[in-house]
Amino acid sequence: MGDIIAALRLELGADQVLTGAEIGTRYRGDMSGTGTTLPLALIRPRAVAEIATALRLANEAGIAMVPQGGLTGLAGGANPGAGAIALSLERWSGVEEVDAQAGTMTVRAGTPLETAQEAAASAGFLLPLDLGSRGSAQVGGNVATNAGGNRVIRYGMARALVLGLEVVLADGTVLTNLNKMLKNNAGFDLKQLFIGSEGTLGIITRIVFRLRPLPRSTSTAFCAAPDYPSILELLRRAEGELGGPSAFEVMWPDFYRFVTAHPTTKSQPLPPDHGLYVLIEHQGNDAAADPERFETFLGGALEDGLIADAVIARNEKEVQDFWRVREGLALDTLPHLVNFDVSLPMGRIDDFAAACRQKLLARWPAGPESHAAFFGHIGDSNLHICVSVPYRAGEGMHDVDELVYATVRDFEGSVSAEHGIGTLKRDYLGHSRSPAEIAVMRRLKAALDPRGILNPGKVI
């Protein structure tokens, strides 16, 4: 172990290779709270050549290398473990170019998402990728986990926004294809191997994002609907009449009642006695006509009974109040909270929620200490579940995981919608992927990382 540390310090400089107490606690793991072990070392390179050198040396020594971005992940994907080296991309940061003619942006992997968004906006463009941790999450991690967020319904996952990548392979080979073209079928699209692979096949160092025009108007409404079929019809109408919403966030009553009653939320847009709630956001390009068009859409939905009530945000404060409800930060105050990020066929989401709730409350009977809250983007099949129950002796989070993921499997869904697999969902990957699919994943891993040094123990 001492040999690899000495080699890294010789090649990279002593200031870039930290060990022991020099590392601190931040680099032990991500926001899942499951990383508790100090890594063998932490390296913080400032250039792609240094990243390549570090990987080459680690590969030759057979030492695990675990890439780390903003450490905002929730699946344990950035946890290094005692015998591994953590490779932080935080010093490899910056927007290298905004190409206004191509409508693209080239960004270093360690750049915070919000920094990239602001640079795009300053040039008159929108970088559609957006999530709550935008201020600290790094774009390399976003792409490595194929991040989603609030605008997937209109713009797609991170995968849909990436035109080109630069990646360093396990042996230090730098694979550069900073493509700016939407159409490019010159052989295999190798970037797709690395998007969503969570650093197990290569370490992303540069990204070319496809940009969109900045919207000229944003209209936001909080609505109440009688039932789930009405929600689906409302979504279809929004797609047809508005050209598609930029956000369509659905909340079940258990979520809405708890969040709006909590003092941290300070907002209750509508009474708590409706069947479902939905936050709709529409971004358009006609600041004069779009608000009226949005109100006409909502008026038609009210007349036809698709929604029972609605309130439109008239200023930025009201927009923030609506989103504060949807963000559901009040749930973080619950004890023993277990969060889930799953996908289901859109037409079966409400049936899944009912079945999952029934199973949870049968195992841990309903009461003031039992909570099961459901909410999600829905238009992209994504459902979030927050569970807080009083565990009995011998029980714990694993028991909740088993119940929820078994129900996801029964409904032919995915155990991970946008948070990745990491370590926390690895045992349940077979609930959503066939043995043949997992075998192919392992063959790809063996081909690109034969010594198994890249983020070992994650995904597969």
TrEMBL record:
<dbReference type="GO" id="GO:0071949">
    <property type="term" value="F:FAD binding"/>
</dbReference>
<dbReference type="Pfam" id="PF02913">
    <property type="entry name" value="FAD-oxidase_C"/>
</dbReference>
<dbReference type="InterPro" id="IPR016164">
    <property type="entry name" value="FAD-linked_Oxase-like_C"/>
</dbReference>
<dbReference type="InterPro" id="IPR006094">
    <property type="entry name" value="Oxid_FAD_bind_N"/>
</dbReference>
<keyword id="KW-0285">Flavoprotein</keyword>
<dbReference type="InterPro" id="IPR016166">
    <property type="entry name" value="FAD-bd_PCMH"/>
</dbReference>
<dbReference type="InterPro" id="IPR016167">
    <property type="entry name" value="FAD-bd_PCMH_sub1"/>
</dbReference>
<feature type="domain" description="FAD-binding PCMH-type">
    <location>
        <begin position="35"/>
        <end position="214"/>
    </location>
</feature>
<dbReference type="InterPro" id="IPR004113">
    <property type="entry name" value="FAD-bd_oxidored_4_C"/>
</dbReference>
<dbReference type="InterPro" id="IPR016169">
    <property type="entry name" value="FAD-bd_PCMH_sub2"/>
</dbReference>
<dbReference type="InterPro" id="IPR036318">
    <property type="entry name" value="FAD-bd_PCMH-like_sf"/>
</dbReference>
<dbReference type="InterPro" id="IPR051264">
    <property type="entry name" value="FAD-oxidored/transferase_4"/>
</dbReference>
<dbReference type="GO" id="GO:0022904">
    <property type="term" value="P:respiratory electron transport chain"/>
</dbReference>
<protein>
    <submittedName>
        <fullName>FAD/FMN-containing dehydrogenase</fullName>
    </submittedName>
</protein>
<dbReference type="GO" id="GO:0016491">
    <property type="term" value="F:oxidoreductase activity"/>
</dbReference>
<dbReference type="Pfam" id="PF01565">
    <property type="entry name" value="FAD_binding_4"/>
</dbReference>
<dbReference type="InterPro" id="IPR016171">
    <property type="entry name" value="Vanillyl_alc_oxidase_C-sub2"/>
</dbReference>
<comment type="similarity">
    <text>Belongs to the FAD-binding oxidoreductase/transferase type 4 family.</text>
</comment>
<keyword id="KW-0560">Oxidoreductase</keyword>
<keyword id="KW-0274">FAD</keyword>
